[in-house]
Amino acid sequence: MGDASQELSPEQAKQFPQPTVKQYLEYLANRLVVKFRPRENPRDPKDVFELTLSVKMTYDEVAQRVGEAINWDPMKLRFLSHRVQPEGPFNEIRRTPGLTLEQMLVPATQYQGSTSVIGQSLVARCGPFTTHLLGDAAAAAAVTDTLYYEKLDMSILELENKLARQVVWMNAHRQEEVRRRRA
Questions:
Q1: Which of 30, 62, 76, 175 is a good FRET partner for 166, with 20 to 30 A between their CA atoms?
Q2: Domain for residue 1, yes or no?
Q3: Burial of 37 by CB count in 10 Å (0-12 exposed, 13-18 middle, 19+ buried)?
């Protein structure tokens, strides 16, 4: 019988992504099946896929996994939150250091001081009686399990660092002649 604190070989570590019992239990507690839909055609079932991810994964880790699933450069992916009513893509999720999947899944209308995503996902999975049992506020606080992705032509870093500027040309009488929007 082997020692419980024994280190795994590199080959074994590749076989078991969570090599210790503690890491495995943490993975089980934080895993969530997330649906990904393309922004361009969100209702097309052939482009919808699911990934089992940890709610503690960062934006970059999620992008890496989605990029592998759709065979696209992860730095050229942008995510959007899910709007429940009417259903569809909502706000673009800005890539920031430390942003986790847990934070990405909380609806933009989420109020401050709510429960964690794990607790919210349990509320979301209660079914059609959630509103009846817990009230409208708890049902509204339920986390979504859907994210939208957009394939970009440029890096997300380059896109987010561009600033939109509005240029207005005025004539001698201070009347607006031309209005242009430049990035």
A1: 76
A2: no
A3: buried
d(CA 92, CA 150): 10
* Cα–Cα dist 31/54, whole Å: 4
Task: Output b/e per residue, 88-115; b: 16+ Cβ within 10 A.
Answer: ebbeebebeeebbbbebbbbeebeeebe
Is residue 51 within 8 A of residue 69, CB to CB? The reply is yes
- Residue 119 CA from chain centroid, whole number: 18
Would you say residue 178 lies in a domain? no
Would you place residue 24 in the very low, low, confident or very high pLDDT band (cuts 50, 70, 90)?
confident
Omega of the bond prior to 42 within 30 degrees of 0, cis?
no
Identify the CATH number of the domain in which residue 29 sits. Answer: 3.10.20.90
CB 55 within 8 A of CB 61: no
**Percent of residues in the chain assigned helix, strand, coil, to nearest 5:** 35, 25, 40
Contacts of 124 (CB under 8 A, 6+ apart): 130, 142, 143, 144, 145
- Tell me the CA distances in angstroms from 174 to 66, 158, 165, 170, one per residue in order: 51, 36, 20, 5
Give the predicted TM-score (pTM) of the model.
0.65
| pLDDT reported for residue 134 | 45
Assess if residue 128 is contained within a domain. yes
pLDDT, tens only, 154-181: 998 888 887 677 777 778 777 777 666 5
